[in-house]
Amino acid sequence: MTASFFIWLAALLIGLGTAVFALGTLAIWRLPDCYCRLHALTKIDNLGLGLLALGLALLQPDWIDGVKIVTIWLLLLCSSATTGPLIAQRAIEEQTR
Questions:
Q1: How far is 34 from 56, CA to CA, in rounded Å?
Q2: Residue 43 has pLDDT above 90, yes or no
Q3: What is the DSSP string of 50-68?
Q4: pLDDT at position 70, please?
Q5: pTM across the whole model
Q6: How far apart are CA 70 and CA 53, in angstroms?
Q7: What torsion, rounded to 10 degrees, do the Cα atoms 28, 72, 76, 48 define?
Q8: What is the pLDDT of residues 65-82, one digit of tens each?
């Protein structure tokens, strides 16, 4: 495959990631409560950042830099899976007071 194919693919992935973040921001504004917003936020982070990370990884001149970018995305997936339920639990505790 040619280098221009990877550039176009990276541009497509970055554009899709940006669109996911933009549409997700609109969804967060329109959702009614904390739990719906939290759910949307975790999905936006995971998908949008994943698309951006893959697009940016394709543009790196050295493969190890691309692996570092994807590793950062994977670490963010783990932290999002941990913090989302903690925030929801705290919101439930605040409502029961």
A1: 32
A2: no
A3: HHHHHHHHHH-SSHHHHHH
A4: 92
A5: 0.83
A6: 6
A7: 30
A8: 999 999 999 998 888 888
- What is the 8-class DSSP label of residue 31? -
pLDDT band for position 25 (cuts 50, 70, 90): confident
Taking residues 60-65, report their average pLDDT: 93
Taking CB atoms within 8 Å and a gap of at least 24, the contacts of 45-48 are 45/76, 45/80, 46/76, 46/77, 46/80, 47/17, 47/20, 48/17, 48/18, 48/20, 48/21, 48/24
**CA distance linking residue 2 with residue 28, whole number of Å:** 39
Can you give the residue ranges of every domain in the chain? 3-96
